[in-house]
Amino acid sequence: MFNFVFWVLAIWFIVNVVWMWFKLDDQTLQKTFAWINVCAIVIGFWVYYSVTHDASAIDGWFITMNWVNIAVAAIQFYFGYRSENNTHNAHNVHHKAA
């Protein structure tokens, strides 16, 4: 199970990062991928710490990928929610001045 989940998360990570990079302006996609990453992070840490596994070459890569995925999710949340808040605040300032 440990190896299988690692490879599923690794493939997801690569697809996620590549797609995120080319679609930075697509807020809906960024939000969706960020929330999927939250699920992937929970699953990744759960499998890493709860499933018995031998010390292997992927052991270090697995935990590193989990931590890097946290940073990727944070970036995706930023790009997914930043413009809505900025537009909303600018809209409120405009109305207050009038």
Q: Could you list some keywords that capture this structure?
A:
mainly alpha, 98 residues
Give structural notes.
The chain is mainly α. The chain has 3 helices and no strands. 18% of the residues are buried. The model has no long low-confidence stretch (mean pLDDT 83).
β-strand percent reads under 5%
Rg estimate, integer Å: 18 Å
Overall body shape: elongated
Q: Secondary-structure element sequence?
A: HHH
- Name the poorly predicted regions: none
**Straight-line N-to-C gap:** 61 Å
Q: Work out the helix count.
A: 3
Overall pLDDT: 83
Largest sheet: none
* Strand elements, count: 0
Write the layout of secondary structure elements.
Layout: H1 2-22, H2 27-50, H3 57-97
Overview in brief:
The chain has 98 residues and is mainly alpha-helical. It is built from three helices and no strands.
